[in-house]
Amino acid sequence: MENPRSFTFNQFDVVSEVSGHHYLSSSNGSDRFTDFRGAVYKKIMKEWRILQKNLPESIFVRVSETRIDLLRAAIIGATGTPYHDGLFFFDIAFPPDYPSQPPKVHYRSFRYPLNPNLYCSGHVCLSLLNTWRGETCERWNPSQSTVLQVLLSIQSLVLCENPYFNEPTVRRFKSPLDTESLKYDRDAFVLTCKSAIQLIRNPPEGFEPLVTAHFRERANAILAACEAYANGRARVGFYRDVGSPGRQGKNKISKKFLVSMEWVYPEMVEKFKGIGAPVESAAEKLRLGAEAMKKKKEIARRQREGVWGKLVRKMKGILGMKKKKKKKKKKKKKKMIID
Question: Do residues 29 and 96 touch, judged by C-beta distance below 8 A?
Answer without folding.
Answer: yes
